[in-house]
Design goal:
By secondary structure, this protein is of the alpha+beta class. The protein folds into two domains: about 5-75, no CATH class; about 85-175, Kinase associated domain 1, KA1 (TATA-Binding Protein, 2-Layer Sandwich). It has helices spanning about 5-35, 50-75, 100-105, 160-175; strands at about 90-95, 110-115, 120-125, 135-140, 145-150. Strands 1-5-4-3-2 form a five-stranded antiparallel β-sheet, with helices on one face. Strand 2 and strand 3 (about 120-125) form a beta hairpin. The longest helix has about 30 residues, at about 5-35. About 20% of the residues are buried.
C-alpha cells in the first residue's frame, strides 16, 4: 500500500473516531455526573469526574471505529470514494434483465418490499435490531447503478453492511 492511500485511510478513520466520540460523550457525561460517589464494589479507583467520561467515550469510540474500519478492510474491493461510507453506490455493466433480477431478489428472504417502477427496482434489506436498509437498482442501457443506504440518513457506521449488499448484488449481475 502506498503512503498516500495509507494517509487517506488514516484521516478517514480519525474522522470516524471523532464523530463517534462526539456522539458517545454526552451519554458518558450524563452517566458519570449522575454518580455522586466513587464506584463501589472494588472499583474505588474510578472517580466520578469529567476525565472519566472523556476516557470512557474515547475508549468506546475507538473500539467502534476500529471495528468499522476492520469490517471495511475485510470486505475488500471497494472504490476509494466508498471507503467507510454507509451510503454505497456501485455501477456494473451487464445485459441481465430487470425481471430476472427481481426474481432473484424475491427468492432471497433477506430482501423485502420489492417493487419495480420502469427500469428501477426499489427494495429493502432486513437488518438485525435496526430498520431495513434501502436498496435502489437502476438499469439504463446496459449499465446498472446499485445503491444501498441505511434507513436513517444520519447513520454513519454500518460495519460495511451496505457495501457487502451492493457487492453481492453486483457480483450476481456480473455472473449472469
Amino acid at each position: 500500500m502506498n503512503i498516500q492511500k495509507l494517509l487517506f485511510k488514516l484521516f478517514i478513520s480519525l474522522t470516524y473516531l471523532i464523530r463517534c466520540w462526539i456522539l458517545i460523550l454526552p451519554i458518558a457525561i450524563a452517566i458519570i455526573v449522575m454518580k455522586e460517589d466513587g464506584w463501589k464494589y472494588g472499583f474505588t479507583f474510578i472517580q466520578s469526574n469529567l476525565n472519566v467520561a472523556f476516557f470512557i467515550a474515547f475508549a468506546f469510540s475507538f473500539l467502534l471505529s476500529l471495528y468499522h474500519t476492520l469490517s471495511f478492510e475485510e470486505a475488500e474491493g471497494f472504490p476509494d470514494e466508498n471507503y467507510l461510507k454507509s451510503h454505497q453506490i456501485v455501477r456494473v455493466r451487464s445485459t441481465y434483465s430487470i425481471p430476472e433480477l427481481e426474481d432473484w431478489l424475491a427468492s432471497n428472504s433477506r430482501f423485502v418490499n420489492i417493487s419495480v417502477i420502469g427500469n428501477t427496482i426499489i427494495a429493502s434489506k432486513k437488518v438485525y435490531f435496526l430498520k431495513p436498509d434501502k436498496i435502489r437498482i437502476e438499469h439504463k442501457d446496459d449499465l446498472y447503478t446499485i445503491e444501498s443506504r441505511p434507513y436513517f440518513s444520519w447513520w454513519f457506521i454500518d460495519f460495511a453492511r451496505n457495501y457487502k449488499t451492493v457487492k453481492r448484488i453486483a457480483q450476481y449481475i456480473k455472473i449472469k
